[in-house]
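Following up on my earlier thread - several people asked me to post the actual chain instead of describing it. Fair enough. Here it is, all 352 residues.
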Amino acid sequence: MENKAYVPGSTDSRIEELRKRFGDDLVILGHHYQSDEVVRHVDIVGDSLELARRIPDIEARNIVFCGVYFMAESACLLARPGQRVFLPDHEADCAMARMARAEDVERALERLTASGRRVVPLAYVNSSLAVKAVVGRFGGAVCTSSNAKVMLEWAFKQGDAVLFLPDRNLGRNTARTLGIPAKEQCLLDLSRDNLDSDEARSARLLLWPGCCPIHESLMKPDMVDAFHSHFPGCRVLVHPECSPEVVERCDGAGSTAYLIKEAEKAAAEGKESALCIGTEFHLVRRLMEKYADRINIIPLAQATCADMEKVTAERLLATLEGLDEGKGEVFVDEALKAPARESLVRMLEVCR
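Reply from S.P.:
Thanks for posting it. Predicted structure:
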């Protein structure tokens, strides 16, 4: 955490007082997409994979997760007995996760496997606990943007086909890195019900029709072309939740961790005058400020996640003030816990 002198009586000062009071009984986790006002109080900041890996080693009784709801659910699955997980705002959801309902995923898998074909579900971590439970029951696993390639390779080895959900873009972009041709892929269309079509029956990769509105709708191919035109020779790097049309025009695509490392490397080497990064703007802005004296980092679009922004310093403070009373605690359905945890543990074991 950045060492700052906070104004006495301010929200920041009060948060720090409470952090000191709880001491080793409290750990605050935060996703890279959180705002600066929240990140400055976080003990561990990371992407979904890094934070998932860290949770089993946390000994603190109270884990406050600054992120969105599915992340807090995952923390509950990986936490130790007796630990409590809190989310400052339970309305902080994920638009992509809402695009895959557990009952729809289960019905789709039942139909896709009715003929005896082994279809292995691979769920992006941006999915609900209920969806992760369905995936676990069908022998599948979770993945993140950091390990999607490794996990997709794993899933193909487990059966005849893979159902990748809910992000069609991450699925397609990952398939491209593995050399899986478009003719072996099928985008499911739940509105016209193509689950029993010849295309779906023969496809190796079945794609759920979900996406991240931030990365898909606010980052367009012409933006990449415009940057290359204005800054000849400079690279554009994006998150693989962007559409394949955007990724194909870029110089690189990868997880949040990848984008951070590439910015750090470019700044250290000093060979590039500018670097364009296409992902959530809170992260890009921090990179811009961190390396301002070494490289000009430019956002592809100033796109922020409204759900991530629901967690504010004021709501973090309210959670800490109500910690003893359990304010903001996250609970998961015990009936779903075992299969959902299994899908997460499979990922961690494969990527160990």
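The first helix runs from residue 11 to 22. That should answer part of your original question.
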